[in-house]
Write a structure and sequence with these properties.
By secondary structure, the protein is an all-alpha fold. About 35% of the residues lie in helices and about 5% in strands. It has a domain of about 120 residues: Cytochrome c-like domain (Cytochrome Bc1 Complex, Chain D, domain 2). Bound molecules: heme C. Heme C binds next to helix 4 and helix 6.
């Protein structure tokens, strides 16, 4: 009896819900009863098969975005720079956020060697990850600065400026001498201290589509 009553109760509730919904469909708030939108608010008719805005990307649009540099240096542009060149760029365009020597901030600390305990970042959250103790490839530094820094005006540095500031940051991290010339041939050869702390993705590289 108890379960039969329970079933009846459930059915009763369902019936009530159905009648509320059904009344709503017929009620004054349904879409069908709304006045038609005035002509000016209606969406313009779509040109067939298109959204009606935008244009095909030109080769120069694509070139401005197609700037990725691989770990092995693939994609590095022509140009060259030394730490002395980069020191000027750094002082003018970077020091305000990263500090006079790259250690003071207020934004990310860029300079600092191995903290001495094998860089166990996971076990010690106080350790600061820097170019000197964490970045596995010098080429990534070029890529990142060129595409993202300064964040207020990314893309504003010339390739020569980026080579220079890359050389300067590597020099501040004691990874290259002050007179080292950084270019497409020398940058991939810089040995980064954290290089062997990263392992290759066992799934391999994604297939290139072009
Ligand atoms: C207006 C402030 C500002 C300026 C100017 C600036 N940066 Fe940055 N930079 C940042 C911030 C904020 C981050 C962190 C971005 C993030 O985590 O997404 C950052 C991150 C970086 C990093 C990555 C640090 C890491 O280990 O993850 C590098 C390298 C870097 N900046 C280099 C430069 C260089 C070189 C310049 C000058 C050409 C520059 N920045 C100018 C604010 C600035």
């Amino acid at each position: 009896m108890r379960s039969a009553a329970h079933r009846t109760g459930t059915l009763g509730l369902c019936a009530l819900a159905w009648s509320v919904l059904a009344a709503g469909e017929r009620g004054p708030m349904t879409r069908a009863a709304e006045p038609a939108a005035p002509q000016s608010q209606r969406a313009p008719a779509e040109p067939s098969g298109r959204f009606g805005f935008g244009r095909p990307a030109s080769p120069s649009d694509i070139a401005a975005l197609d700037i990725d540099v691989g770990p092995d240096g693939r994609g590095l542009p022509a140009g060259r720079g030394t730490a002395a060149d980069g020191e000027r760029t750094y002082a003018a365009r970077c020091a305000g956020c990263h500090g006079k020597t790259g250690r003071e901030g207020p934004n990310d600390v860029l300079v600092g060697g191995d903290p001495g305990d094998g860089a166990l970042f996971g076990r010690n959250p106080q350790l600061r990850r820097t170019i000197g103790n964490y970045w596995p490839y010098a080429t990534t530094l070029f890529d990142y600065v060129r595409r993202a820094m300064p964040p207020t005006d990314p893309g504003s540095l010339s390739d020569t400026d980026v080579y220079g500031v890359t050389a300067y940051l590597l020099f501040l991290n004691d990874l290259v001498p002050a007179d080292a010339v950084m270019d497409a041939a020398s940058l991939p050869k810089v040995v980064m201290p954290a290089r062997d702390r990263f392992v290759a993705d066992p799934r391999g590289r994604p297939a290139r589509t072009r």
